[in-house]
TrEMBL record:
Protein name: DnaJ-like subfamily B member 4
Entry keyword annotation includes Zinc-finger: no
UniProt xrefs under Gene3D superfamilies: DnaJ domain (1.10.287.110), Urease metallochaperone UreE, N-terminal domain (2.60.260.20)
GO molecular function: protein-folding chaperone binding; unfolded protein binding
Pfam families per record: DnaJ, DnaJ_C
């Protein structure tokens, strides 16, 4: 004997909005209000399990209703869509499946589950045929729909750094005993049996094509790796602590911390990326690589331009005209170069001195760039009569 069909408006009730609501701003506002109320971290142990379930349902409701295609399919087929999504189907797979049924049965198929005219999930017009929906790999919640409620919450509220350093307890395991339903009714295709395997490509019957379970999409999470110019000049080792979420033995979520050691090589540039595969979140369909991106801290003296280092030194007017000056220049590795302005040599404002082979390492060519020093001649703000007379006599 078939069970009563489930009402299609449940997800709207979960968010507290009228059935058929399409306004994105209204849905988002309702989601935020409900998610804040039922976030598991805000509830004590006695309410934790209920809060976990409510929080998951709220995330599922928003994920479905904020997606135009999923909302349209949910409005028409109700909980049957959620059962399909929780089994690994996409919304497009589900829609394709329904369309194929319609073609096979003269436009009379209405979906995959509870229909008004069919007991126990029998689509109207399937007659006395037995309609079986199987799921491989154990039971799956008919109300999970593949939604990661915590990740959705973090994205909506600007959570911390793409999956790192999240607090809170594990999700309660949500599992139901559904997954198999059948029934009989009046109509055509009498005596026929259809087995629908959710590990197929979404087609049904003898023409189903087997496919492997969908592979998780790998995401890259970028973290700034702040380096001084000295770090990039000589190379160094950085230790970075990251906290990630993983599947716990109980099936929920757990956090673990680890320290990643990064060998910063001489010559690395701003924007250099170092990828550690699988070092980020790893649970369910979530796989993350950690990508460290080099960010150079501004240096007080040098500006890097490609493989060259540029600096500016100041020279007084007297030294610029007469020479006889030595200016020490400390490089990023601590060594000192002495810039000599010989006696009797006039130095023009804006002229440049080049220290060859003391710049940044070009890793490809295995050579260093240059240190290019611009001379800024400082002029006096005024001259007394004696100074003016002396200069006039000279020129």
């Amino acid at each position: 004997m078939g069970s009563a069909p489930q009402r299609k408006g449940r997800l709207y009730d979960v968010l507290g909005v009228p059935p058929g609501t399409k306004d994105e701003a209204e849905l988002k506002k309702a989601y935020k209000k409900a998610a804040m109320k039922w976030h598991p971290d805000r509830h004590k142990d006695a309410m934790k399990e209920q809060a976990n379930q409510k929080f998951q349902e709220i995330g599922e409701a928003y994920a479905i209703l904020s997606d135009e295609q999923k909302r349209r399919l949910y409005d028409e087929y109700g909980e049957d869509l959620l059962k399909a999504l929780s089994s690994g189907m996409t919304a497009q797979d589900f829609e394709n499946a329904v369309e194929q049924q319609k073609q096979q049965f003269g436009g009379r198929a209405g979906g995959l589950g509870a229909f008004p005219a069919g007991a126990g999930g029998m689509p109207q017009g399937f007659g006395n045929g037995t309609f079986v929906f199987t799921q491989k790999g154990g039971r799956t919640s008919a109300h999970s729909a593949g939604v990661d409620a915590r990740r959705l919450f973090e994205e909506m509220f600007g959570g911390s750094g793409g999956g790192f350093s999240f607090g809170g307890d594990d999700f309660a395991s949500m599992e139901s005993s559904g997954g198999m339903f059948g029934g009989s009714g009046a109509g055509s295709a009498r005596g026929m049996r259809m087995d629908m395997d959710m590990d197929t490509d979404g087609s049904f019957g003898p023409f189903s094509r087997k496919r492997s379970a969908p592979q998780p999409e790998v995401q890259n999470v970028e973290i700034d790796l702040r380096c001084t110019l000295a770090d990039l000049y000589t190379g160094t080792r950085k230790r970075m602590k990251v906290t990630r979420r993983v599947q716990s033995p109980s099936g929920g979520l757990a956090t673990e911390s680890k320290v990643i050691e990064i060998d910063v090589l001489p010559g690395w540039k701003e924007g250099t990326k170092i990828t550690y595969e699988g070092a980020g979140d790893n649970y369910g369909n979530v796989r993350q690589n950690v990508v460290f991106v080099v960010k150079q801290i501004k240096h007080d003296v040098f500006e890097r331009r490609g493989d060259d280092l540029h600096a500016t030194v100041k020279l007084g007017l007297k030294e610029a005209l007469l020479g006889g000056k030595v200016i020490p220049l400390t490089l990023p590795d601590g060594t000192v170069e002495h810039l000599k302005f010989s006696a009797g040599q006039v130095t023009q404002p804006g002229s440049r001195r080049i220290v060859s082979g003391k710049g940044m390492l070009n890793r490809k060519e295995q050579r260093r760039g240059d240190v290019i020093v611009k001379v800024d001649v400082t002029f006096p703000s005024s001259l007394d009569p004696r100074q003016a007379e002396a200069i006039a006599r000279c020129f």
